[in-house]
Amino acid sequence: MKAVVIHAARDLRIEERDVEVLEPGQVEVAIDAGGICGSDLHYYNHGGFGAVRLREPMILGHEVAGTVRALGAGVSTLAVGDRVAVSPSRPCSACDYCLAGHQNHCLNMRFYGSAMPMPHIQGAFRQRLVAEQWQCHTVAEGVSIHEAAMAEPFAVTLHAVARAGSLIGKRVLVTGCGPIGALAIIAARAHGAREIVATDMMDAVLEKALEVGADRVINVAANPEQLQAYAANKGYFDVQFEASGNERAVRSGLDVLKPRSVLVQLGLGGDVAIPQNMVVAKEIEMKGTFRFHEEFALAVDLINQRRVDLKPLLTGVFPLADAVTAFETAGDRTRSMKVQLSF
Q: CATH 3.40.50.720 residue ranges in the chain?
């Protein structure tokens, strides 16, 4: 089979790899669609992120969906020909965190396309993927395979919503309107948010934020005063989903969050300076959010039931042979939101 393999920064190759042996309880999936994530772009552009660096060639990708082609012994929940979204999260189910129900913090996590451990965990951008049957969630008839492949990033935002607590009747601020920010808007609306305001520095992504459900958008580069107006009377918003990883977005969010509000940090960035006096005086809760586990099944269910529409976020599909072009396009925020590969 062919696979998308990163060797070093800017060194992406299409290579032949052997298909893994099908074991009992597993299924072989012909991957049909795979979305390029921010972490994939970090490996492509920089050879890693933070302390995580490539130390050997690695197949990229973890946002995938495809068609079941073969069944291992004992598989009873799936049939050949079923279309499935594949969760990339493979916790060990034996460590202290797994046993406590915190599988996203598994000490022995095997998350597709990760250079954290050595040897690296090979990813899912390949023509054939052997997965556990419990990783595979059936895609409903009429749902496109490309929408199904967005279940993984959607699950990330569903976990963020769970970290925030109830959103029913809440006023929500989303800072950063890339794919995760846009999906956070969709997730917040599905969970009962009363009002959603989104900010970014680019008009193109703000237009997409309006399309997927934001009530108002603000270009904070051109019109910062429009956001600052929400700081009156100690703030306006009940919850902030910070999806940019930018210090200025965190600080401006703290200005407009009202007392006893919640800031959920989705975006990854470097060290930031936080005005602690404001956090203390307003009694603001700051929460991190990391990956997901059970939310993947919910993401697929919401997509299958047409309770959410992720299709507007798909801005390009490239054949496997054009993987480099796909990665270059995905890294250009002026012309892309979610870019996928077709296998």
A: 157-288
Q: What are phi and psi of 97, to 5 degrees?
A: -70, -40
Q: Give the class (CATH, top level) of 2-150+310-342.
A: alpha beta
Quick one: CATH architecture of 157-288? 3-Layer(aba) Sandwich (3.40)
DSSP state of 228: H
CB 261 within 8 A of CB 237: yes
Count the helices and strands in the chain (H runs, E runs). 11, 18
The pTM of the whole model exceeds 0.90: yes
Q: Nearest Cα to 284, choosing from 239, 245, 242, 241?
A: 239
Q: 171 in helix, strand or coil? A: strand
Residues of the chain with CATH 3.90.180.10: 2-150+310-342
How far from 328 is each of 88, 120, 139, 234, 323, CA to CA, in Å? Answer: 24, 24, 29, 43, 9
Local confidence pLDDT in tens for the 343 residues of the chain: 999 999 999 999 999 999 999 999 999 999 999 999 999 999 999 999 888 999 999 999 999 999 999 999 999 999 999 999 999 999 999 999 999 999 999 999 999 999 999 999 999 999 999 999 999 999 999 999 999 999 999 999 999 999 999 999 999 999 999 999 999 999 999 999 999 999 999 999 999 999 999 999 999 999 999 999 999 999 999 999 999 999 999 999 999 999 999 999 998 877 889 999 999 999 999 999 999 999 999 999 999 999 999 999 999 999 999 999 999 999 998 889 999 999 9
